[in-house]
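Tutorial sheet, problem 5. The two components below are modelled jointly, 693 residues in total.
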Amino acid sequence: METTNIPIQQPEMKISSESAQARQRKQARKIKNTFQSLMSHGLIIFFGSFFLVPFLWMLITAFKSNEDVFHTPPRWLPYDNLLVEVNGKQYPLYNVKTDTGIRQLAAIKIIEGVGTFVDPATPSQAMEFEIQQGETKVAEPIMHVSFRWQNFPDAMNRASRPSVNANFWTYFKNSMIIAFFVIMGTLVSNTPVAYAFAKIKFPGRDALFVIVLATMMLPYQITMIPLYLLFNNFLHWGDTFLPIIVPTFFANAYDVFLLRQFFRTIPDEMCDAARVDGASEWQIFTQLVLPLSVPVLATVTVFTFLWAWNDFTGPLLFLTSPKNFTMALGLQDFQSQRSLIWNQLMAAATVFTIPIVIAFFFAQKTFIQGIKLTGSKE
Amino acid sequence: MDEVQTKKRKFTWHPKFNKWSYRDRANFKIAMLFLLPWTIGFLAFTLYPMVASLIYSFSIYHSKAPLEWNGFKNYTELFTDELFWTALYNTLYMVAIAVPLTLLFSFFCAVLLNLKVRGQAFYRVIYFLPSIVPTVASTILWLWILNPQAGIMNTVLGYFGINGPNWMTNPAWSKPGLILLGIWGMGSTIVIYLSGLQDVSASLIEAAELDGANWWQRLWNITIPMVSPITLFNLITGVIFMFQYFAQAYVFRGFQNLGYPLNSTLFYSVLLYQNAFQWLKMGYASAMAWVLFIIILICTILLLKVSDRFTYYAG
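Model answer (structure tokens):
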């Protein structure tokens, strides 16, 4: 291809006293821009810290040792006892006020406020000190920055209630099973319904669609009690996953709406052409529309996962024995039973959050697109 | 004659089925098959529970004993129930304070995140991240943050010379604590606003700039009216959400202490849950649910009516 260059007449540059002024003005504008950009960054970071710091605090606490959790004022990094090896075993190192000044000694054991200490250099000589004498602390543990990874297995292996053979691995597995079937059910049941509303011209379609949308208005509290009785007393599904999973196989207004919005963007002419060629509606649906709808199916999948993983009320109503708890229910139970071990609680909360963060980073666009779709009604 | 004939016929898809064209009839039949999942779900999980709930709401029902007709007594009892008014007050407090606060702050954050700065994408992720933390996890995290002794909230307030309150035990501060938790996780509201801000036409802003409008005037006279439909959407969804506020309040206090301290976190749905599943007053709880539905309906209609004057729809 040939391009024709049109010569552009450059206006003659005037080099005069004006240029100094112009330079000055340019510089002033530059300073103003830098100032504005600094201000912007400052504001964004200031308010951003409100979002970031609690999130980081969850991670930091998850790595804290038991000694560090209740340290006041709270420390911004996880600290743990400095350990020293004595006779092949690890013992915490203490600063101990002795008659000969402050010495660093290893605490072999501490019983009822009295500690047995040894000098790591001369392990045979044991000394006994009271940790606290009146107001003054005689022995103080030496702490250093250390990430206690052990909190994670500790929290995960720990049963939320004593004498119950269910821990967070069980809850994690249950949540995954529920999420899997809920996603299946949502995809299988909502797509044909949305297809009918988007692509089949049948009498009464708009009126029916209004009814679908109207069900969104109904608060869950109204259907909650009859559904509870239906599933528990009539179908005897109490304490199983069925009351949570089965309804998702029967379509819901949100996903029907979302999918219909997308299906409508697929040109009708394509479907009509397929019809002329003798394709049935089912063939058009499965072989033409669904393959073209991968992005919106991804959105529905991600959001359904998020919803199922997050859901608290459903499991709370229907799951009663800990072996069937989901992560959400298990974490709440754990917190209500042992409310003071914040490091393990935060470790469990982190494990609970991780799958969603991973999903987010893999499908960031899908996430944002989905939120925008729910926010933009016709 | 016609009526007799239609009654004789075993099954018709639709009252006017026979008057339709062949094409319409075929489409209607096939569409009904496609709609089957929704139809069954609607009948079993929406329509049946609605009818049942309405019947329960007019009766005494404990799920173990048979239903006992009670007339309007559940409804009249509600209005003399002190707990009902407490729960309603607490819920209205959240609707009236938390929802506008969340909207205002999320709009502000969206404006910040719309500024052309380097690292914009990174900043957006930071603001959005808390909203994907599961509700139970974020509530427990905030219980820890608001811990009066070792929590970081009061520590950070201390840096500014503020003596932080006892968030957990002071009835005046328990709801603000929950509001903070809500604001922390409002990322999706920010995203919706942000997409609205991106749709505000640049030429309009430029024109105003040429006319000498400053940043504040442009925001007040162009941006805010242009995103007003989004504000309305966020407002209505926020109000509906707040009336049904449950999981956070439940996790905040646990089953044994629902409403603690001094019923200050006893929200409408929490009281409803207590009535239904703790005290097994299912009829009474159903009446509460219908009253809630009516309140939500009235609020939504009012908002839509009032907003007509304030909302601008482009195009």
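Marking note: Chain B touches chain A through 96 residues (CB under 8 Å). Full credit if you identified this.
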